[in-house]
Amino acid sequence: MAEIYIDEIRELLPHRYPFLLVDRVVEIELGESIVAYKNITVNEELFQGHFPEKPLFPGMLTLEAMAQAAGILGFKSEGKTPADGSMYMFVGADNVRFKRQVVPGDRLMLRAKVVSVRRGIWKFEVSADVDGQLCASATILCADR
User: Fold this and answer.
1) Residues 70, 140 contacting (CB under 8 angstroms)
2) CA torsion sign, 28 to 140 to 79 to 40?
3) Which one of 50, 80, 107, 113 is the catalytic residue?
4) Which residues contact residue 43 at a Cβ distance below 8 angstroms, ignoring those fewer than 6 apart?
């Protein structure tokens, strides 16, 4: 499937600045997997406090970015949008690991694969990397509500 640009991402996710953490989808296989990215820029407000002398993108926001990519995969796979009254809620995370710091100038690649879907609960294996180096990984649950 073709790339998904920010206008369609904004239709698929209810998040807005400063909490929209997916800039573009580069690959998507409906019901299977997604590859997206977030460009990390020093202009983001969060770097005023995390940390001014050595800016680091927070690990929890990396986890949230992976969940947002998974949410896009769920919405596109089901043919739903928030405008239809559907919402994918991030409801759980297991085996969360952070391996590498993410800093301004990095392109954070976000990957999600569907593990299972049962009664509106989606289970994903997610990861994030920069230049092929693993930054974070987890198993997450999202509920379609």
Assistant:
1) yes
2) negative
3) 50
4) none
Q: What angle do CA 126, 127, 133 make, to 5 degrees?
A: 170
15 as an active site residue: the answer is: no
Cβ proximity of 62 and 139 under 8 Å: no
User: What are the backbone angles phi and psi of residue 76, rounded to the nearest 5°?
Assistant: -65, -40
Q: Which residues are registered as beta bridge partners of 117?
A: 122
**Whether residue 18 has a cis bond before it, omega within 30° of 0:** yes
The domain ranges of the chain are 6-44+54-144
Alpha-helix residue ranges (DSSP H) falling in the chain: 6-12, 59-78
Tell me if 118 sits within 8 A of 91, measured CB to CB.
no
3-state secondary structure of 64: helix
Task: Kindly report whether the global pTM for this prediction surpasses the value 0.90.
Answer: yes
| pLDDT tens for each residue of 77-131 | 999 999 999 988 999 999 999 999 999 999 999 999 999 999 999 999 999 999 9
Question: Does domain 6-44+54-144 sit in CATH 3.10.129.10?
Answer: yes
